[in-house]
Amino acid sequence: MSNKTIQMSRMWKYFIEATVEIIQEDGIEQVTIRKVADRAGYNSATIYNYFGEVSHLIFFASMKLLQDYVEDVSNYIKNGQTPLEKYWLSWECFCKHSFKQPSIFHAVFIMNLGDHPEKLIEDYYEMYPAELINVPDELKPILFERRITMRGKSLLQQAAQQKQIAEDHIESLNDMTILVWQGMLTNILNNRLDYDLVTAEKKTLDYIHQLVEMAKVR
């Protein structure tokens, strides 16, 4: 690794860690370029040498704050005997963590990041490769996929191959489960529902469970 690359990685991490601290102390909505620069000990202009906009800083910091989920989903998946069980368990884990940290999951999976958001995930794991060491191979494609519409599709395709669901149900089941989660999380963040986060998580899982049951081959 060249000295320039090492320096770039070091600066990149300074700003990410400063953003993480602001999120943890003040909340994600309080992140600004100026606050991050002040926390890291640099001027605002320096940040733009490494990040295109503040949403990218928030995205990378939020990825850092997803580590409990990444570790937990590996354990959840191990308990599944079939692709459909793994699909359900992955949603159970995803809902458990996303409704505990709705703003963080919104930043990673829903927030507008401009063009090529998948490249941002590649950049993140390039800077923090150690975070992938204990991740099972079957989960790595999911972790590199920012588009939530694609994250569970491989498990549903495997389920169809094993005749657990009909092949023509893959798209509809995948789309409906995602829309249920997105709708609930977005409404909670926008104060459009009276549910607390525990109730929102339970209702979301209930709806997803119903969709999975309806899609099963009888």
From TrEMBL:
Designated name of the protein: Helix-turn-helix domain-containing protein
InterPro entries linked: Homeodomain-like_sf, HTH_TetR
Signal sequence annotation: none
Pfam families: TetR_N (PF00440)
TM helices/strands, residue ranges: none
Annotated keywords: DNA-binding
Residue ranges the UniProt entry marks as DNA-binding: 32-51
HTH tetR-type domain boundaries: 9-69
Keyword GTP-binding annotated: no
SUPFAM superfamilies per record: Homeodomain-like (SSF46689)
